[in-house]
Design brief:
Elements (H helix, E strand, L loop, with lengths): L3 E3 L8 H7 L4 E3 L7 E5 L5 E7 L4 H12 L6 E6 L2 E7 L4 E2 L3 H4 L2 H16 L11 H15 L16 H11 L7 E3 L8 E4 L2 E5 L6 E3 L1 H16 L5 H8 L9 H8 L3
Antiparallel strand pairs: 1-2, 2-3, 3-4, 4-6, 5-6, 7-9, 8-11, 9-10
Helix pairs in contact: 4-7, 4-8, 6-9
């Protein structure tokens, strides 16, 4: 994760977070336009995320839930004012796009599959989001109606010539979604934290919840293709996960939903 040193606290920090930072080193660690992320060099490290009002409430709840499973950061504070602010501890280790992991793609793909299966085997009692598949399908339907369509999103392994073609695949296949496991929701290498190949947790878990396993599996295949620039390791990933519960017919259905954003 990139970190750019800041030499003054941004003016929009709420008083409690200005006090928390104090004279400590502060870094901008943002990676998307949707949110600002700051690293606070205190103890083992803290991250402070800033986003639009109300947008981090679910992430705060899911972060707390993942932490209760020993799989994520501890929520220190969540504040919703002019903006939403979420302060968490740092998850130890490095994200899985660190060169030491990318240099061993066979092992990386196996670890990614094994750890995802372990996540999906966890008890799901008390999860704050119980219907993630429904939310996933509702968003695709809404965005299709709004005219959102990105045909280039997965063209390296799924291609739709039109929004109507993708929507047809989605409608014909959506009833195959059945499993109810704890999803990460955006299972990509930058969100998986490792320490000497041992999983230490997941970050940015705001899209998690109870849903169909093939959503996470799809993104696992995608992230290996994107970060390694080859589809060569998809089978190794799926073998490590375990093919006993897979329905490969669902992967194009997930892609058909995702092209609508």
């Amino acid at each position: 994760m990139k970190k750019t040193r800041l030499f003054k606290i941004p003016s929009d920090f709420p008083p409690e977070f200005r006090e928390f930072v104090g004279q400590l080193a502060l870094y901008d660690s943002s990676s998307s336009p949707e949110a600002r992320v700051y690293f606070i060099d205190r103890g083992d490290g803290f991250y402070l995320k800033q986003s639009s009002k109300g947008s981090l409430k679910l992430e705060a709840e899911m972060t707390g839930y993942f932490h209760s499973k020993g799989l994520g950061a501890e929520v220190v504070s969540y504040v919703s004012d002019v903006y939403d602010w979420l302060l968490t501890t740092a998850v130890p280790g490095e994200d899985a796009v660190h060169p030491r992991y990318l240099e061993k793609p066979e092992r990386l793909s196996e670890v990614l599959g094994q750890e995802l299966r372990r996540l999906h085997e966890l008890d799901v009692d008390g999860c704050p989001v119980m219907h993630r598949t429904d939310d996933f399908l509702d968003l695709a339907e809404r965005n299709y109606r709004l005219g959102h369509f990105n045909p280039a999103l997965f063209e390296s392994f799924f291609s739709f010539s039109s929004a109507e073609e993708a929507y047809k695949v989605l409608q014909e296949g959506k009833d195959m979604f059945q499993s109810r496991v704890l999803l990460y929701g955006d299972y990509c290498l930058p969100n998986v934290m490792l320490e000497n190949w041992r999983l230490t947790g997941f970050i940015d878990v705001g899209t998690g919840g109870i849903g169909d396993r093939h959503i996470d599996l799809f993104w696992g295949i995608w992230t290996l293709n994107f970060n390694l620039q080859t589809n060569e390791y998809a089978d190794r990933f799926l073998d490590a996960y375990g093919r006993d519960v897979l329905n490969s017919e669902l992967f194009p259905v997930v892609a058909a939903a995702e092209v609508f954003g």
